[in-house]
Design brief:
The complex is a heterodimer of chains A (223) and B (80). Chain A has 223 residues and is α/β, with parallel strands linked by helices. Chain A has a single domain, classed as 3-Layer(aba) Sandwich (Rossmann fold), CATH 3.40.50. Chain A is 23% helix and 25% strand. In chain A, the strands form 2 sheets. Chain A has a 9-stranded mixed β-sheet with strand order 2-1-3-4-11-10-9-6-7, with helices on both faces. In chain A, helix 1 links the parallel strand 1 and strand 2. Chain A is globular, with a radius of gyration of 16 Å. The termini of chain A are close together. Chain B has a single domain, classed as Mth169, Chain: A (2-Layer Sandwich). In chain B, 35% of the residues lie in helices and 28% in strands. The radius of gyration of chain B is 16 Å and the shape is elongated. The N and C termini of chain B lie close together (6 Å). Classes of the chains: A alpha/beta (223), B alpha+beta (80). At the A-B interface, loops of A face helix 1 and helix 2 of B.
Chain lengths: 223, 80
């Protein structure tokens, strides 16, 4: 599997993601600086977590207007899989590649803890290695993870099974509407989520619940 | 030419920061406060041009960057 990872000034989970991708797929992703205007040939584009541009204006807002995003948009349109984690999720919503937006946590506090996630839709290339309704553990670390969409958009994404993961067992850390932790685009080839599956890849991390997400994509690509 | 862009949260969008400010004002003894909603103000200097061109440019800036229209409304004023 060929993957590409986009780096912005302020990305800080990029190395965790490189490790996860290399560990699961056997090859490290191509690193692409956000000022680039071309992407390498790739099966998966990943936008990692961090605080691109210091969260100035709105989290992900300025990164979403970087030159490389037009290439990400074009690749997504061609069906290339795109994964955004944490700040990557914020960037994808700001770029209009995913519906809704991420607002300040309802508690107004930065949250860094483990949550439980329910796999809401496993009929996608990202989530098929999980069972529908499976509960997995995953860490979160964010200040702006409070997912919001207007009632029409929310009805659309719920009706179209675009919710990928929901916070479960009362662990919603940020006030997200409908406990939404991750969403797909309508075509299900773009996924954004606030939790960090790349941080639960091997036993040394304290668990491996995040691994199936990457293995699932790998399996689809190599099939 | 100077313009002011004001970005505010749409009605119905939860504003926990506004609520926290409301609580702090209450704690300082200010009474008679309804709700507080937090927004953003951008003062933008533009090369001189006619007002319609400036307004069109500023509206474009709002749609493309300054406001997230999923949750925010914006208002553009020429102030000098």
């Amino acid at each position: 599997m060929k993957s590409a990872l986009i780096q912005f000034p302020g990305s800080n989970r990029d190395r965790d993601m490189v490790h996860a991708l290399a560990s699961v797929s056997g090859s490290a992703p191509a690193l692409v600086w956000h000022k680039e205007t071309a992407l390498p040939d790739t099966d998966l584009i990943v936008i990692p977590g961090g605080f691109s541009y210091g969260d100035y204006l709105r989290s992900g807002a300025i990164a979403a207007r970087s030159p490389i995003i037009e290439q990400v948009r074009a690749a997504a349109r061609r069906g290339v899989r795109v994964l955004g984690v944490c700040n990557g999720f914020q960037i994808l919503t700001e770029a209009g590649l995913l519906p809704g937006t991420l607002m300040r946590n309802a508690s107004l506090k930065f949250v860094c803890r483990e949550v439980l996630l329910e796999v809401a839709n496993n009929a996608t290339s990202f989530t098929h290695a999980y069972k529908k309704g499976q509960i997995i553990r995953c860490p979160v670390a964010h200040h702006d993870g409070n997912y919001f969409a207007d009632p029409d958009t929310l009805a659309t994404i719920e009706g179209n099974e675009q919710v990928a993961f929901r916070y479960s067992g009362g662990t919603n850390p940020n006030g997200s509407i409908n406990d939404i932790a991750g969403v797909f685009n309508a075509e299900k080839n773009v996924l954004g989520l606030m939790p960090h599956p790349e941080n639960l890849i091997e036993p040394a991390h304290g668990g491996t619940d995040g691994r199936a997400l990457f293995e699932g994509v790998l399996e689809m690509v190599e099939a | 030419m100077k313009a002011r862009v004001t970005v505010t949260l749409k009605n119905g969008v939860l504003d926990p920061q506004g609520q926290a400010i409301e609580g702090a004002l209450d704690g300082l003894g200010f009474t008679g406060i309804g709700t507080v909603r937090q927004g953003k103000v951008f003062d933008i200097e533009l090369d001189d041009c006619n007002k319609d061109t400036a307004l069109s440019l500023l509206n474009d800036m709002c749609k493309k960057l300054l406001a997230n229209t999923v949750i925010e409304d914006y208002r553009v004023d020429i102030i000098g």
